[in-house]
Structure formats: C-alpha cells, structure tokens
Design brief:
Distance between the termini: 53 Å
Strand content: 15-25%
Number of strands: 11
Order of helices and strands: EHHEHEEHEEHEEEHHHHEEHHH
Largest sheet: 6 strands, mixed
Helix content: 25-40%
C-alpha cells in the first residue's frame, strides 16, 4: 500500500497577492500549490511575461556617481536586441524559468519560432517607447510586509512611483480594462502593504522612498495613493499576426476595499483550518493543475491528520508544530483594523 504523503499545513500563512489570487480562484488549486507542492509547467506566454518584467526592471540603471536612475540602454535597437538575446540564452536554452519547465505549444518551435521572436522584439519596442518618454520610477521590485489583526501580508511591487503610486505589469490576460482594475483584490492587498509599511516603526525601506508620507493617516493615504496596471497584452489577428499593445489603467481604493480583503483572507484561513479544499470548477481550462485535479483527494491526506502526527492529542483539539518548541522574541508591527 502506498504511503500517504505527510503534509504541513500553515494555518496562518503570509498572504501575498499571488497566494490570495489562487485561493480566491479555487481552494483545491491552493492545496496543490501551497500544501501539496505539486510542480507544474508554465506556458510560453507566462515565460514571455516574466521576460517582459525583466525588460522593464532593467530599463533604468542607477548612476554610480549621482545615484539617480538613467536609461540602461543607448538606443531602441539595443533594448530590443537585448530582450531577444536574453530570451534565447536564458529561457529557450534552459527550457525553464525560476525552476519551472516551459511547455512549448505547436506554434512555438521550442522557443525559436519566427513569430515568437517577432512578438518579443515588438513588445520590447513598445516598452522602450513608453518608458523613454516617462519619468523614472522611484524603485522596482520592492518587498513590502505587514500585519494586522494577526493576519500577515506581503507584496512585491513591480514599481513604486511618486505620489504613492504602485504599478503592476500584466501580460497574457485576455482582457484588462477599467472593471478589472477596479475589482482586482490583489492590487488592493499591495496598497494595504504600502500603507502598513508607512506606519510601521520597523520598516525602513518604504519610509526612505516616501519620507514625506511616513505615518500618513488612512484617509489622506487613500486620497493620494493610486494603483496602476500596465497592460502588455498580446493580441493576434486571425492569421496569428501579433499586435502588441501597452496601456496604463489606474484606480483608487477605499476603506471598504481594504475591509473586503481582510474578510476574504479570514474566509480563506477559516477554510484552511477546517481543511476545506473543495474545487471551484471555475476557469479550470486555465488552471495549472487541471490534468491532476481528479487524481488527488485532499480529504485522504487530512482526514486523520491529528491522529497520524500526535495520537495522544487526537481528541484534545490542539495542534503542536514541534515537540521541542523554541521561544522566539518577535517584533510586532503596529496593528491596523480598517473600520
């Protein structure tokens, strides 16, 4: 008889936008990714999206003499050539991104097809055209962490720009518009992290980026701050001719939006504690685990969880992480509740 895999369930995880998005879409998908840790492949579209993030991140370089951001490429052509070179050398040659294998479609030619290379070159061109005419960001790939009511949150901002603007790059989505931006719960979580960091006495990076906003009241923060989604979505004609676009959508958030994120996280944590990992049966065609879903039943892995790990405490209703607990002094951030 095959031994059932022992799993560690973190009942109070640190909630990132990606974690919340997976849980919001399907709790069984959450189980696959964050508890069962089932590896999956990614499509060429996702791989290109990761490359596009790198293109934008590397567009600006810090001048070692002045500390100011300057263009990292001398010309349009050098930026495009760099993007194509990076695609071939780092992505196609290895066949993976961040440890995830790329699954090539019949049109990809294992990453070398002319239309795929053309798409990357065109997209690099429109990115260059946008950013060469924009004011530089303040910081890229900024990690923000916080805690409220014992709920841990974190986010990595693609870009922080002046006037408390968080910009996130999206590619591969079928449709991004005003509705998507207004109702995107993941971007709300990013903004919550930014506000929390401006209040925390233990966070130094964000106050250095926005020194004039340190300790800002919530109502003023919501009045000034804004989220932006930079849409870098591929569009194809019937003849599969790629038509890249780049557009900025922006939106603001309210206290009610913040409270809805809190309620959503509390609901997901309740499901985790109850080991409720039912599939949602929505957007299954776009799920990484679609082909594995019916092969696994989370209940079989959790039905006797306490008894398997700690038989003496099976009826006590308690869960012990370690038989040799260590006392760790933890610095706590200021707690916020948005009411």
């Amino acid at each position: 008889m095959k031994k059932i895999k022992e799993l560690k369930v973190v009942e109070n995880p640190q909630w990132s936008p990606s974690r919340l998005a997976v849980a919001d879409r399907c709790m069984k998908g959450y189980w696959f990714q964050y508890i069962f840790h089932l590896k999956h492949t990614i499509s060429s579209n996702i791989a290109i999206g990761k490359l596009e993030h790198k293109m934008i991140e590397n567009f600006w370089k810090e001048d070692p003499d002045t500390g100011l951001l300057v263009q990292g490429y001398k010309s349009y052509q050098s930026f495009v050539n760099s993007a194509v070179r990076d695609w071939k050398f780092y992505y196609v040659r290895s066949g993976e991104v961040d440890g995830q294998k790329i699954e090539w479609s019949e049109y990809d030619g294992n990453g070398y097809s002319s239309w795929l290379i053309g798409r990357i070159a065109e997209t690099a061109g429109i990115i260059y055209t946008r950013y060469v005419n924009e004011e530089p960001r303040l910081k890229a790939e900024v990690k923000m962490e916080g805690e409220f009511d014992e709920i841990k949150i974190m986010a990595i901002a693609d870009e922080l720009r002046k006037d408390l603007v968080i910009r996130d790059h999206k590619s591969g989505y079928k449709k991004i518009g005003e509705y998507f931006v207004q109702n995107n719960i993941q971007m709300t979580l990013c903004l919550m992290c930014l506000f929390n960091c401006l209040q925390s006495p233990y966070t130094t990076v964000i106050p250095k980026i926005y020194p004039e906003y340190k300790g800002i009241p919530l109502d003023e923060f919501l009045d000034i701050s804004k989220i932006e989604i930079h849409d870098i979505s591929p569009r194809w004609t019937k003849d599969r001719i790629h038509q890249p676009i780049t557009k900025i959508y922006s939106a603001k958030r309210t206290e009610q939006d913040f409270n809805e994120v809190i309620e959503a996280i509390e609901s997901k944590q309740k499901a985790i504690k109850e080991r409720d990992f039912h599939p949602s049966k929505d957007n299954c065609d776009y799920c990484f685990y679609n082909h594995h879903c019916n092969k696994y039943d989370p209940v079989k892995y959790h039905e006797n969880e306490y008894e398997r790990n700690f038989p003496l405490f099976a009826n006590a209703g308690v869960f012990i992480d370690s038989c040799n607990p260590k006392i760790v002094k933890k610095r706590r951030q200021k707690i916020f509740r948005f009411k």
